[in-house]
Amino acid sequence: MHGIFRRKAIDASDRGAGQTLTPTLSWPHLMALGVGAIVGTGILTLIGVGADRAGPAVILSFVIAGGICACAALAYAEMATMMPASGAAYSYSYAVLGEIIAWVVGWSLILEYSLVVSTVAVGWSGYAAPLLTSIGFPAMLTQGPELGGLVNVPAIGIIGIVAALLIFGTRESATLNAVLVAVKLVALTVFVVVTLPYFNAANLEPFMPYGFPKSVDAAGAERGVMAAAAIIFFAFYGFDAISTAAEETKNPARDLAIGIVGSMVACIIIYMLVAVAAVGAVSYTAFANSAEPLALVLRELDQPAAATFLAVSAVIALPTVLLAFLFGQSRIFFTMARDGLLPRSLAKISSRGSPVRITIFTAIIVAIIAGVLPIDQIAALANAGTLAAFIAVSVCMLVLRRRAPNAERRFRAPLAWVVGPAAILGCLYLFFSLPSQTQFWFLLWNIGGLAVYFGYARKNAAD
User: Fold this and answer.
1) Alpha carbon 197 to chain centroid, angstroms
2) d(CA 166, CA 356)
3) Does residue 20 contact residue 85 with C-beta atoms inside 8 Å?
4) What dihedral angle (degrees, nearest 10) is formed by the CA atoms of 127, 132, 133, 138?
């Protein structure tokens, strides 16, 4: 037995035979992993939700949300290069804040990644279902019970395919991911190129019709730049999956920082270009709250071919989000199992250098969620898990700046005492901007997690 706040050095992890991941990745793979995770359904849908809340000032909402995420990314980059372990925020918390905090962070990450993978799989299935039913596939098998179906087989199937890629090999799946990410970026580039010639400054007036702070209108809807930023923030996260690849990176001291910061910078630029092009091309009221705002903008401009290309490219490339988050989820599970907080038998590496057992275990869990559970009612929980992890990593960075000021830092976050608090306060604000029901379920999830910790994990943790 040991104290619940016991800290564990990263290099002291129990890495016996069959428990060490094989380094096969370089910074281009990490950049693609990050961009693949970040640029997903968020930019394709949330710009419409944001425009409904902020009007043309949704552009400013993207700046604010991206700024908060950039601060968190800088903290991740510093911690990842100091402690290149596959557990990411969980491992940093174990080394800096203690075991029980690490457990809560790891438990929150399990929630985040599971729900993101499941939700994206269900979203992908929504695009694939019409094609499948047109060739005779039973409609009952294309959606879960909450929508009147039996089980969502396409969602389960795409998770199985992505899991098989990860089992086949980390480098091979990362290379395919890079190709699919390129497809996605080409589609967004086409959108910007097609819409920018239609830019009209009159579409930006009035720029801030609902004001800056979050407010509630007469109909009970949340409005304002900050209300939109709280939603848009969730189009940015995903870069944290890069830090889970630390043990599989050939030169982590250099490549992790390039991957994390580089993917965030690239995505902020992409999002800003897309937002400016969309809002400038047509009135925001034309696509506000649309389920497919970018395609709608293209159709409003009488560009149906470009709209179709965008939709098809999204379906082809959407599995990059699944790959990045399923990769991260399996590595969090793997590290917690290697530390004894979860069954150690899961921390087994195949001859190809990938954690086969934990990947299969993870895929089964998220496939069950995607196949039968009402994702639309609980997906917001993923956001709460993300914010908890971002806050923990930023705290770890600041604590180590005090506790070990002279420790080697291959990457130093600039203005740490500005960046760190900005990330913490920004994430706290966004957490309390979540629906109260989401906060309640997040609390309930972690109460259950603490029961597992005191009932199993604490007594089985490695000394």
Assistant:
1) 32
2) 8
3) no
4) -120
Residue 215 phi/psi, 5-degree rounding, is -140, 170
| Highest mean pLDDT out of 217-221, 237-241, 294-298 | 294-298
Query: Mind listing the pLDDT tens digit for each residue in 253-288?
Result: 788 888 888 888 888 888 889 989 999 998 888 888
Confirm if 382 and 112 have CB atoms less than 8 A apart.
yes
Of residues 106 and 83, more confidently modeled: 106
Model's pTM, two decimal places?
Answer: 0.82
Q: Domains in the chain, start-ordered, CATH in brackets?
A: 19-460 (1.20.1740.10)
Structure tokens at 364: 């089964």
Sign (positive/negative) of CA torsion 354, 358, 363, 366?
Answer: negative
Q: Are 66 and 301 in contact (CB under 8 A)?
A: no
Q: Cite the DSSP H helix spans in 282-372.
A: 293-300, 304-317, 319-338, 356-372
d(CA 194, CA 155): 32
For 308, the token pair is 């179709």
Output the CA–CA distances (angstroms, integers) from residue 204 to 114, 211, 416, in the order listed.
39, 14, 35
